[in-house]
Specification:
6 domains, 5-stranded antiparallel β-sheet, 76 strands
């Protein structure tokens, strides 16, 4: 202990070498200069005294060493364990005084935090209250405002590092009662082993302490793990988010009692020392007293220092800035010439008034004969004096020591090699004499190994052995003709050398006792077998196989080059298939045996293939399942085989790609995959075009189909678009009559109409039924319950008589109306209705409408019989004014409108005159051939608004509900007129022109207007 105090005192002197001043701006406090402020090498840097005496006493005592003795300079200033002053105090905290202790620059609470913020953020170790009394609380979260007194904070990582620098051993700061070991509680800091908790699991209670070292953020925070002998720090992030730790509060003090209480420092922090009421600044790990005036540099103060922003030294009458090394080692002067010091693993020497690194020659002098073999350690490197030079130690010398005269001829072994000490160097040797000495009679008949070389002692000399002797032992006269068995071959000792034994030397003649013996003659690499009293040479197998012998008879093997399977039989390897390798050999004894290598697959049966050969053959569906491929199993899939058209077959690769089979049941079906298109034909899936896939089969020219809004037509079995591109459909297409063109994906046809050639858009019938060509002229087709006929290169709505004439005799429904045929004559199936006068009328359903097919004969005001004769009412019905006609129809029926009349004309496929053969119409003209049976429009004549009757057999009129918009006295009616009417008979055609689509047939009835007082016939339509 006394030795430690002396060293500590010496170090204290060293660390008080420089005392100076420091400025904080342009203002300086006047201060008288005193030698106290600038003493260099004080015996105590905090008490007065002569600088010269202090200087000499320091150098004359133990501060510097001679050239043969080096002083080691520590990084820290004091031996803090014994020289630091402990200041016990207290602070008011939550209604009572809490004990504090100052160690170095920090004031600590002498016990752990014991506040209880919430049950979520704090807990007792193992959830036991007595542990909180003993160790304080453990915390998940820590807040100084809650856990610490005013001006105190959670101890920072810097506070903990300062603490451990101020004390040399944990035993001085841990509790003397709660830890095992040598704790003495010198500083009364009373650190306790509170352990830590991770959620509900607590560990290390009574063994270790886990203290929070707070940082600026969570990433800077550390946990200090302390046991009785040591401490470590870990990042907070290395613990889980549910971990609880001990907390100790501390604060940085701005003053200490004595200079010896100053903490170890590495920054320009400032501390007030009460002892001399001075401020000290830390420079390069040393504390300097501050003054505020630059002192005089003279001979009397030569070597003195001061600090003002930077440290300076008085040299030759001028102040010079000190370097870092001078501060740490001391000022180099003529008085300290050749003094040495050791700092930061490097030795330095005071030379020519400055410190420099001490060279090897400085420390040890030259390598000479007297120092040969000596080893020294300098600046972290070991050297040996060898060949008049200081040489760094080799790895061998570092491991086994230096070879010097004292170790001459010593031998060491390193990784099987032998090294001998010669000429101050470890040298590898292969000489037997170096290791085992001279060859004498005591060393014969044995093999000796030196650095992996073998030797034998023969005739008084060492001889190197052969490779065979290395492997099989010594071969000499004593071992002549000795045989050694090595697997399937043997070696023989012959004339002091080992060689491979011949077959006769190894075994002699092949006897019954040697039957099936295998011998490999290594000289020619051939293999022999004793079989039937004869040595026979075996055929060399594949390089990766052993010889086929009785020993491995019946065994199987496989090779990768070539990739094959083999069977050993009668000393020969026979190639077999994988089934025989995996499931057994197919032979005469196993004929009929079955194997099933894969689930859901056909198995194999062992069959004879003739000439004594046998083979595993895959079974058929019939053999394995007793199933035939017929109509009952068509398209059935069994173990990957499809029954198709009487044959079990495996799906084609294309079927697997498409994911659908093509069999006779789905011929004509289409499929697509990977932008390719296929159709199932009798030969399998056949590639087709995209248009064939989407548009269907192009089986007949003139067919039309639509894909993605583009219209195609069938030509020569292919779907094409019209070759002519149309830019303007309103322009003439003269010279292209009947030709097609395309405009915005739609098909147009060039047609002649009213003296002009125009592009005409195909109607819906053409798109659905195809072009109306010359070859299809007169063809009748039905589309959406409506009939069309190919006429004049266009699909037109034919009249009823044409439909009936081209239909087979029987029953047919046209526009919702049934017709029956008897003797080639078609008759509609009529309905009936009865008016209020109990008059019954025939009705006919046309599309969605039901019409009366006889004129109304219901008596009302302003209605008359023709010529006022009742017999005409029975024949023609009554003639009504327009007003009377509005209410003449019975309940559930109404007078038709112009729109309903047009609908009738459209649905009835042209309505013309009828009953021409009963003499009703005066003239038999071209109209007659277009008659539409059923409606029987009769030439009932008219009554004028003046009361006269006229035009019987020549004119028929039927009132509509429509009126003339610009004349309230006129209304619309349907007009049927015979060619015998006077040429000057005219009416205003003011209720609309002929319906579109019928204007090419002038015989079609039309709608005209006339005075409402005229008398016309009435046909009623059933309400919907």
């Amino acid at each position: 202990m006394r030795l430690t105090i002396v060293i500590a005192s010496t170090v204290l002197i060293l660390n008080a070498i420089f005392i100076g001043c420091s400025g904080y701006g342009s203002e300086y406090t006047p201060e008288e200069y005193s030698s106290d402020s600038f003493s260099f090498l004080y015996s105590s840097s905090y008490k007065g005294g002569s600088s010269s005496s202090a200087y000499s006493s320091a150098y004359n005592s133990s501060y510097y060493s001679s050239s043969s003795e080096t002083l080691f300079i520590p990084d820290l200033e004091y031996d803090k364990n014994l020289n630091a002053t402990v200041k016990l105090d207290s602070v008011w905290y939550k209604g009572s005084y809490a004990k504090t202790i100052q160690i170095g620059s920090y004031i600590w609470l002498a016990e752990n935090a014991k506040e209880y913020p919430t049950w979520r953020t704090s807990k007792c170790y193992d959830v036991k209250d007595e542990n909180c009394e003993k160790y304080g609380y453990l915390y998940l979260q820590w807040d100084a405002a809650t856990l610490c007194p005013d001006d105190f904070s959670i101890a920072t990582a810097s506070a903990w590092e300062s603490l451990f620098k101020n004390v040399s051993s944990n035993k001085y700061v841990i509790s003397s009662t709660l830890w095992s070991g040598t704790a003495n509680g010198t500083y009364a800091l009373n650190l306790v082993p509170g352990g830590m908790c991770d959620g509900f699991t607590c560990t290390d209670g009574g063994k270790k302490a886990y203290y929070v070292g707070a940082g600026e953020s969570k990433s800077d925070t550390k946990i200090y793990v302390i046991d009785s002998d040591s401490h470590t720090s870990k990042p907070l992030s290395s613990f889980s988010d549910s971990s609880f730790f001990s907390v100790r509060c501390a604060k940085l003090s701005t003053q200490v009692k004595k200079g010896s209480d100053l903490s170890a420092c590495d920054t320009k922090e400032k501390i007030m020392v009460q002892e001399d009421s001075s401020t000290y600044t830390c420079i390069y790990g040393k504390w300097f007293k501050e003054v505020y005036r630059e002192p005089e540099c003279s001979k009397s103060t030569e070597g003195s220092t001061y600090y003002k922003i930077r440290p300076y030294v008085c040299q030759d009458g001028e102040w010079r800035e000190l370097e870092e090394l001078e501060i740490r080692l001391g000022y180099c002067t003529s008085a300290t010439q050749n003094a040495t010091a050791f700092y930061n693993d490097t030795s330095y020497i005071c030379d020519s008034l400055s410190w420099r690194k001490q060279t090897l020659l400085d420390a040890q002098g030259e390598c000479n004969e007297q120092k040969g073999g000596d080893s020294i350690y300098h600046n972290g490197i070991s050297y040996v004096c060898r060949n008049s030079m200081w040489q760094t130690l080799s790895s061998m010398e570092n491991k086994y020591g230096v070879c010097n005269p004292k170790r001459l001829s010593e031998v060491i072994v390193e990784q099987g090699d032998h090294y001998i000490c010669k000429n101050n160097t470890w040298s590898r040797t292969t000489a037997a004499v170096d290791v085992y000495g001279k060859c004498d009679t005591t060393k014969t008949d044995s093999i000796y190994v030196v650095s992996n070389h073998g030797y034998v002692c023969e005739g008084g000399a060492w001889r190197g052995i052969s490779n065979h002797e290395t492997l099989y032992g010594l071969c000499n006269a004593k071992k002549q003709d000795t045989l050694i068995t090595l697997g399937n071959y043997k070696i023989i000792c012959d004339n002091k050398a080992w060689r491979y034994a011949t077959l006769q030397e190894a075994y002699g003649a092949c006897t019954a006792e040697l039957q099936d013996t295998i011998y490999i003659y290594a000289t020619d690499t051939n293999t022999y077998v004793c079989d039937n009293l004869t040595w026979s040479k075996l055929t060399k197998p594949n390089v990766s196989l052993s010889y086929c012998t009785k020993k491995n008879q019946g065994s199987k093997a496989k090779t990768t080059t070539p990739k094959a399977f083999w069977y050993c039989n009668n000393y020969q390897w026979t190639r077999i298939d994988s089934l025989s390798y995996n499931y057994g050999i197919c032979s005469g004894d196993s004929v009929g045996n079955k194997i099933y290598p894969k689930k859901d697959s056909l198995g194999y049966i062992c069959k004879s293939t003739g000439a004594g050969l046998y083979q595993w053959v895959q079974m058929t569906i019939k053999e394995q399942f007793n199933l035939d491929c017929d109509e009952t199993t068509q398209d059935t899939m069994v173990v990957g085989r499809l029954c198709d058209n009487g044959t079990w077959r495996t799906p084609t690769s294309l079927e697997k790609t498409i994911g659908k089979y093509c069999s006779k049941k789905n011929i004509g079906e289409k499929a697509t995959t990977s932008s390719k298109y296929y159709e199932c034909e009798s030969t399998g899936w056949t590639s087709i075009t995209q248009s064939m896939y989407y548009l269907g089969e192009c089986s007949r020219d003139s067919l039309i189909s639509v894909l993605d809004g583009v219209e195609y037509y069938c030509s020569d079995g292919k779907w094409i678009t019209p070759p002519n591109a149309i830019n303007d459909t309103t322009k003439s297409c003269s010279g292209q009559s009947g030709k097609t063109g395309a405009y915005k994906g739609k098909i147009y046809i060039c047609k002649y109409n009213s003296g002009y050639y125009n592009w005409v858009r195909l109607n819906d019938a053409a798109i659905k039924l195809g072009f109306c060509t010359n070859a299809r002229e007169g063809e009748l087709a039905k589309l959406n319950d409506k009939y069309y006929m190919c006429q004049y290169s266009w699909w037109r709505v034919p009249d009823l008589s044409l439909i009936l004439s081209k239909s087979e005799c029987g029953t047919i429904n046209i526009d919702g109306q049934e017709y029956t045929c008897s003797g080639d004559k078609w008759t509609p199936v009529y309905g009936s209705m009865t008016d209020s006068d109990e008059n019954t009328y025939k009705t006919l359903k046309v599309g969605t409408q039901t019409w009366m097919v006889e004129n109304l004969n219901y008596k009302t005001e302003n209605s008359w019989c023709y010529n006022n004769a009742d017999r005409y009412c029975a024949q023609y019905g009554r003639l009504y004014t327009w007003d009377a006609a509005q209410t003449a129809c019975p309940k559930g029926w109404h007078l038709p409108s112009h729109e309903e009349f047009n609908s009738l004309r459209s649905n009835s496929l042209h309505i013309y005159l009828s009953n021409h053969d009963n003499g009703n119409w005066q003239t038999q003209n071209a109209n007659i051939k277009y008659q539409a049976p059923g409606f029987e429009f009769l030439a009932a004549g008219i009554r004028t608004d003046e009361g006269s009757f006229d035009y019987e057999h020549r004119l028929a009129g039927m009132w509509l509900t429509d009126t003339l918009g610009n004349d309230a006295n006129k209304a619309c009616f349907m007009k049927f007129m015979d060619e015998s009417m006077p040429g000057d008979y005219t009416l205003e055609n003011s209720c609309g022109s002929k319906t579109e689509g019928y204007n090419s047939l002038p015989e079609s009835p039309d709608v005209f207007s006339n005075k409402k007082g005229y008398g016309y016939s009435v046909r009623c339509v059933k309400d919907n």
